[in-house]
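Let us practice reading a record.
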Amino acid sequence: MEPLNGIDKSRVLDVKPLRTLTPVFPTGAQAPNFGCMPPFGHTPNGFSPFFPFSAPPQAQATQHSPDLNHVNPPAMQTPAGSMPAPLRSYRAPNPSGGLPHDFPEESNGDRESSMGDEDGYFDGHKDVAGSSSSRKKTTRGSYRKKVRRNGDADAVVLGSSVNFVSVISPAQLEDGNRDLVNYVLMNFDAIRRRICQIEDTKEKNTDSIKRADLKAGNIAMTKKVRTNMRRRIGPVPGVEIGDIFFFRMEMCVVGLHAPSMAGIDYMTLRGDLEKDPIALSIVSSGGYEDDTDSSDVLIYSGQGGITNSKEKQVAVTDQKLERGNLALERSLQRGNEVRVIRGLKDDTTPNSKVYIYDGLYKIQESWMERGKSGGNMFKYKLVRVSGQPDAFSVLQTIRKWKDGFSSRAGLVLPDLTSGSERIPVSLVNEVDNEKGPAYFTYFPSLKYSKSFTLTQPSLGCKCHNACLPGDMNCSCIQKNEGEFPYTGNGILVSRKQLVYECGASCPCPPNCKNRVSQSGVKVRLEVFRTKDRGWGLRSWDPIRAGTFICEYAGEVIDEVKFKNKGDEGEIDEYIFDTRRNFDSFKWNYEPALLDEESPNDSVEAYSIPYPLIISAKNAGNVSRFINHSCSPNVFWQPVLYEQNNQSFLHIGFFAIRHIPPLTELTYDYGVSMSGGAGNNNGPHRKKKCLCGSSKCQGYFG
């Protein structure tokens, strides 16, 4: 019989399953660009190429594309230098070779990296495995050493001759404490700020990955700058209720919430025959149809079955009782406590969120209901354990104050500055009947005496539009050792001997990003009555580490006038004196973590052109109300800029670490060089310290 249409259907074909077929790659001669990957394309900035998409060294040397169809292709080549592992591969080393206890097999550790949302944050509920939304995956890559101060923003050196040795012991990696958590968070944010600074100097292009928080988290975890790796139910050592976070990775490195994407963190208990997971923590940040109006009750939506809309995720398919959803169901049956982190919009930074640890909750009931888009969703009712400090409720109360739905209790004045600041500063007393501080004139900056010797003027920049990071033609950037001192959103990158800002002679506009300290307060502040230290200062807004708060304003006086004050018996408790001894502390990033050569350790020691003594007794701003602490959350930084053709020195206050709302702002007053605690005469009087810190020295001044 003739085969139909020339095809003999009686033949038995030797058909192999797809998984046994060898992939065929195009040769260099016939290949179009393969996406953006080598050998026919380029690797995105910030990521190293990997085989088979990267040519072996010998192929690169001859400028020929590798033959990827060879029967025995060359062995995979490892990129030179240190290559951090992707987030999904973080596992604690296990001497026995088995599965590490802190990441059990059923754990929802990170499975993939993602660019996240437009605001730079991951939504609290996203289920990496079950989400129906497509996500960009990042390739594993090594961080590359930045060549500094050479005028070439894109120059990098692969590999590193710098070795970083973590000071965190194996025991501290497992279990942290308060000092260790602060150390880890400070290092994480220092790395992130430095990466932001490097990224800001690069040309804006489509394949540059602008996620400094993910890169910083990658480095911190790889270099073992982390703690609380032991998985646990309940409180996390060193993390306190009310702590705030601006990045999901911050919660990862301190062990509060392990996944950088998923909103439900869970694990399987050892010896559990059923192999069912239990929930450890959840993040509720408004991405799902959660009911977050109550400060003590949270109606939490399960994960999965979602698609991305313009503003939030909506359920389009039924969620399944698996992974995180199953963990919450089992925690309901077991009655274990679950850590809850609440996220909400950050008023001080557009398109960003702030997260607050709200303490321990228990799941009381669960059910399934149809979502607004038709898919069935799991719902869980969590109730806050009583007796815990206020956290999320504080943010809710502040929101009502801002929206005018309720008045501030104890309000004395709605604006202490009488309009001198663009953001009002309220005066509040909830302690006693004191109606306000002693009279003073509110003045937002420094008053220099005409007879005071100022530094010599210097030429301003020539940037008519704006000073741009990486522009080595900008003289103000040159004064800052070739680096822009602030990130794109005005955060100080590092403490410097002296920060040079643009001044009046610079043609750049007033909103130039190198004029951070010249536009007044940036957050909503209030002067409040303390219980035992007079008046103090705090913020309604959460404050990021490195945020400019205010400058120390007042009258600049010389040493003779300062001495005469004491000789005449005048008591001036509003003195700022750069000549005092201040406790040293490290705030800048560790260069070895970024494979940079370590500069001289003295870069955090200030270099002030002349001693500066400021009296805010008769005239000053909100800074005169900042109290002393031996464990401060604010530090001072000398800033120099021009005005009236002369260079003026100013003192700016910046946040050491993230500061939760309504937390008192404090800095180290220092100790006079004239003597110790026994000196109580003249202008160098010592005062008893009431800061209450565990590191209190007992006196200051």
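A brief commentary: The longest helix spans residues 178-201.
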